[in-house]
Design goal:
The protein has 333 residues and is α/β, with parallel strands linked by helices. Helices cover 41% and strands 10% of the residues. It has helices at 12-15, 24-35, 42-45, 51-55, 62-73, 80-87, 149-163, 175-182, 184-187, 198-208, 234-245, 266-269, 271-287, 298-310, 318-325; strands spanning 95-97, 105-107, 130-132, 169-172, 194-197, 218-223, 247-249, 292-295, 314-317. The strands form two sheets. Strands 1-3-2-4-5 form a five-stranded mixed sheet. The longest helix is centred in the last third of the chain and has 17 residues, at 271-287.
Length: 333
């Protein structure tokens, strides 16, 4: 939610943007226009990576304002087929596979078709209740096509669907789902179960099974997804988990608060502007000495996996990495 009362027009949110080159004075002009509800230039240039919310030192959530006005002014040239793809999320056939009621449930949202086949399996996920399909679709992806109204319109439906699983704790595999849950206070919606980020779940599991871990001794780069900007508290937990796995998260330019998004959609809308930045992101990981690029978002993996492999980086989904350190999967050659 945009908090106008917190904004002091410092311009920091747009000055730090990875995709634009505003001076502080130019940034302040843009923000003033946004506050006035005008069709500021930023609305068509923003690639919806959500990072400006994290850059804002006052917690005003400027991206939420940008995203709202993108919909008001229809600022983004989103292809109709992309809009249809997003709308199809809620129509994906749903499945609820009941497991051990004493374990948390696992929600896959609609991500299963985009995940590696061995991403879910093994002892970490054994006998968990698994929910998947359109009934559990989180709707957060609409922000990437310049729309915020579908989130609020379907927020209660999303929470009610997860609650209907009947578990006291639901582990959310897709970062977007956890980000959507984080917005529920803005909508005045109470979440009647414990919503656990997949990284939190894996870290706790590995802590409880230290004796079974075979440290990987590998150097990895991490591709931080846009939705993680809503769940920044997960970053230190992620580092703890990598430590348990015995992998080193290489220090590089485009990571943590300075991470670049996968560019999946906008590399098609603005290819001349975005593709060089996507390649810089991959090259940055290679130059930092990473052996693999680890993904938290299946769609990020789909967008960058092939390009990473072409540069000698093994594309690995984060649950695969956990299974590797438990000896269930081999680190790819």
């Amino acid at each position: 939610m945009w908090h106008a009362e917190r904004c002091d027009l410092c311009g920091e949110c747009l000055v730090q943007c990875q995709y634009l080159n505003y001076t502080r004075e130019e940034a302040v002009v843009q923000i003033r226009q946004l506050i006035e509800g005008r069709a500021a230039e930023i609305l068509k240039d923003c690639v919806t990576c959500c990072a400006c919310n994290e850059y804002c030192p006052a917690g005003a959530n400027p991206f939420d304002l940008i995203n709202h006005l993108q919909e008001v002014h229809k600022s983004l040239p989103i292809p109709e087929k992309v809009k249809r793809f997003m709308d199809a999320g809620a129509t994906v056939p749903s499945v609820l596979k009941k497991g051990d009621g004493s374990r948390p449930a696992l929600s896959l949202c609609v991500m299963e078709p985009f995940m590696p086949k061995d991403a879910i399996g093994g002892q970490m996920f054994e006998n968990m209740t698994i929910a998947k399909g359109g009934e559990y679709f989180c709707y957060l992806g609409y922000v990437h096509i310049g729309m915020d109204s579908p989130l609020e319109a379907n927020a209660k439906r999303f929470v009610d669907s997860l609650a209907s699983i009947g578990s006291e704790e639901v582990v959310l595999l897709h970062a977007d789902c956890h980000a959507m849950i984080s917005r529920m206070p803005d909508y005045g919606i109470k979440v009647p179960f414990k919503a656990t980020h997949i990284v939190e779940y894996m870290k706790e599991y590995l802590e409880e099974h230290r004796a079974e871990i075979k440290p990987l001794g590998r150097r990895i780069a991490y591709q931080r997804p846009c939705a993680s900007r809503y769940s920044s508290e997960v970053e230190p937990i992620l580092d703890e988990m990598f430590g348990l796995m015995g992998v080193e998260r290489v220090k590089r330019k485009y990571d943590r608060i300075s991470a670049r998004c996968c560019g999946g959609l906008f590399s098609r809308i603005y290819p001349e502007r975005i593709m060089p930045m996507v390649k810089e992101n991959i090259d940055d990981a290679v130059q930092a000495g990473a052996e693999a690029l680890v993904f938290l978002c299946p769609l990020c993996m789909g967008a960058l996996g092939k390009l990473a492999a072409e540069k000698g980086l093994r594309p690995i989904f984060i649950t695969q990495l956990a299974r590797m350190c438990l000896g269930e999967l081999e680190f790819p050659a």
